[in-house]
Amino acid sequence: MAEELKIRVGAGLGTGTAPEAFGAAVDLLEQAGVDSLWLPEAVYSPRIDPVVGLTHALARTSKLKVGTGVLVLPGRDPVLVAKQLASLAALAPKRVLPVFGLKPARDAELPLFPVPQGRRAAVFDESLLLIKALLEQEEVTFDGEFFRVEGVSLGMRPVNRLDVWLGGKAPGALRRIGRLADGWLASFLTPEEARAGPEAIQKAAAEADREIEADHFGISLVVAEDGIPDALAASIAARSDADPSRLIAGSWKAARDLIAEHIDAGLSKFVLYPAGPEPIERFVENFVEHAVPLQN
């Protein structure tokens, strides 16, 4: 099965890319022929806002695809999110890669995305349904528990269907992907853990009379240049019993080896982030040398 999958590797920018260097970093990725750029959501950090960064990157490139990895959805107005996506897809066809998540990575940012107590998952489901309806239907009437619209249209729809991927690794998250989404972008899973994801997602999809494309499963990986930093290893150890080297690549060779194992587990899309504040030029140079050749 692995030989039939379309392998693609995208680059994520680390915290070492200052806002004033963002444009030059985007240009460098485009010039190097990198498949895609991925922008995580981290409000209380130096990272560029993913929607703003995505817009800027698409405006200054012609080939580079840009994705959100991942954007918190519950707590945002799904109609406005759908309008943003439709607008970006109109301006940069086939280059917008939305990935949504249930909640921010940092608990301190949770209040920034308010939802009714205990209903975050339900809001997520309903938001996804409404977004997909607005992107795919000429006129939408939606009467949900949290959102209601009657006979509305965004005035534009993507010419090419916009696939919506989700993050997450809990059983409920995998079932949601199977029921409602078009792909899975995981993170901080060992190859052994990741192997169970596509099967669980496809099972949920089949129960909903759907099927997820076989090459719509991926994972984000962090790559260190010279061994996993102690602080990062300690952070991983605090939330996982797994060997940090099974979650984070301590070198570019280790990254290639981990990717090969994930491909064997049924994944085919990869996003590589630098582990530390290394210069973007060096990261892209290593990315082109070690990661790009893995694509088919």
From TrEMBL:
Pfam families: Bac_luciferase. Keywords: Oxidoreductase. It comes from Amycolatopsis alba DSM 44262. This is LLM class F420-dependent oxidoreductase. The keyword Magnesium does not apply. GO terms for molecular function: oxidoreductase activity, acting on paired donors, with incorporation or reduction of molecular oxygen. InterPro entries: F420-G6PD/mer (IPR050564), F420_OxRdatse_MSMEG3544_pred (IPR022402), Luciferase-like_dom (IPR011251), Luciferase-like_sf (IPR036661). PANTHER family: 5,10-METHYLENETETRAHYDROMETHANOPTERIN REDUCTASE, PTHR43244. Residues 7-224 form the Luciferase-like domain. The keyword Transcription does not apply.
